[in-house]
Design a protein that fits this description.
Blueprint lengths: L11 H28 L4 H7 L11 H8 L3 H31 L6 H9 L10 H10 L7 H23 L4 H9 L4 H12 L1 H16 L3 H6 L8 H7 L8 H35 L2
Amino acid sequence: MEVYFTSKKPKPVVKVLVYILLIVWAFINLFPIYFMFTFALKSNEEIFGMNIIGLPKEWLWSNFAAAMKTGNMGLYFFNSVLVTVASIAISIMAAMMATYAITRIKWKGASFTNAFFMLGLTIPLQASIVPVYVVLSKLHWLNHYTTLIIPYSAFTLSMSILICTGFMVEIPYDLDEAARIDGCGLWGTFFRIIVPLLKPALSTIGIYAFLQCWNEFMFANVFISDSAHRTLPVGIKALSGQHTTDWGPIGAALVIATFPTLIVYIFLSRKIQDSFIAGAVKG
């Protein structure tokens, strides 16, 4: 006997209420973006009393110029991009290679090595500041780009391996055997067979690493003391003066730091959703 499931059409009143709730929820989520953008185009007088949440009476686009020149946001933006891209590249390559060795190659220490990597998920970032600082100081790696690239790559590696493992264990071993029969070695099998099949996982790892590195403040504030290697979060903090502060350029700097994250999410959100769906339906 065949069983058919049918769903009743919602009543017009229910649909209207749902749309109203969705509109309100969208407004709540979009209002901070609107407030930050208009904040960046106002003077201190408008920000503190005259026009707090309204559109600027005078659109001060010069705040962005002040943030880029006086606040040196152009250099900090470049530093953030360099550190983030390098950290993402290292995390992705290291995670794929480590996961391949753990899941596809048979050796005695595979399970122990995987457990060792997963311990990284239990270590709070705050608890590692002192030991990491001591190591970097002994190696004379403070105030360099590698000062942030290496810790960022290391602290995103555990989650990256966890994501890769969920996809790689579902890849049939028959593909490895077929590749070896066709003459592929270990590296050929990895780059020609495994890596193309991990594209959904790589998108997820890239977004995760981007958010971790782009918004990180503690390591960048403690390990970098010179302005030449500062990243955006630390650079924005430096804009605040001890006695007087021009808040318009600070708002402009916040826009410069925040909008790349929104743009990356808008263009890659579909890939992230597809990767989660692919990981959920495998097996």
